[in-house]
Design a protein that fits this description.
The protein is mainly alpha-helical. The chain has a domain of 110 residues. Helices cover 73% and strands 0% of the residues. α16 packs across α17. The longest helix is centred in the N-terminal third of the chain and has 28 residues. The radius of gyration is 23 Å and the shape is globular.
Length: 386
Amino acid sequence: MNHEKSQSQLPLAQVKGSWEERIARVARLLSNDDPTALAQSQALIDRLSRIPAAQRAAANQRLDRALLVALQNQARHQAATEQYLAAAATLSAGVQFFADELAFDLQVAACRYQVLEPTQRTVALDALADAGDDIEAWGELVAASLRVGAYEYAQRGLTEAEHWINLTHQAQLDTPAARRDQAMLAHLKARYAVRQADFAAAVAWYEFASTLDTFWLDNPQFLYRDLLTHGAFAEAESLIRRDMHEIRANFWRGLLEYRKGRFEQASRFWLKVTQGEFPNEDSGLLLEVVLSHYYLGDEASAGLSIVMETLDSARTNWGPFFLAGLGWAMRGELASARQDVSVATKLYRADGVGARLPWESWLFCCDLLGEEARAQIKEFFDDSSL
């Protein structure tokens, strides 16, 4: 066997001394909250950033990609440990090393972290607004504003997005690109209308988006979940009935019946989920499948078993850890519940979405847990839910 050849075929992260191996080693230290992790991470970033740009760009931008991963790993760790401004600073410092589109993505990610620091929220939203120069940028402002209830900024984003569409596409509003952008704007307006409790308008905007782009026609869940969470049962039901995905539609229809107090009807829909064939892991339906088991009592621990099997492959996803914590809490295993929900919260922060888990998730806890169990984990959820 040719030893040199086998070595060259190893993944770079396994080649001792390679930049990829060093990044992987520091990432493990960050994950384990090692006290030296941040210092080693910053030293690694500093060394990569001192490499000449042409050298970093060589070999299909290998070292550029290494620098980006190192920056993201450090920022995620800082945000997970509630160092939001430090996380924003890490990404902002890296903007100078990348081209326009990637630099913009880093700026947006930095603003997401900054929004999580209450004293810096207005500054961060202003920065997002100033960065807006396409529909995705304005969409980011609207989404961030809605998450924190800053509706004046959401209105600004919607107005500027509409202005951008008119300016960019002008009289050619029927091209595929123009239709896609108008559909995105309509979706954002639907989400804003839900927050304003104007549910009829939300559905009307969804209908408009669906006529422009089949993506929204095929994915009504992006609105009906919001409608259901905010108590707009009739409007949510009208969209759930159109969902062609059987597993997803059955879970949410069951939840709709449950929230209306029709428990027997709810069980019928959830049984259709649990008695059907389990979808593959990449289907994006873990929540619907596991919660269907939970709402039916999960006496055989089938739902908890499913989610536990996914955790090894979902280390950067907060959802499975939340579901695991909820499953343990249902069984009175409150120490395990707190541990998994705590991990979920750290990952949620690392994503720059929120400082605490969303109140929509707390509603599942309210449905499924007693007062004592809820008291053990309520600190991990958005205050507006409690």
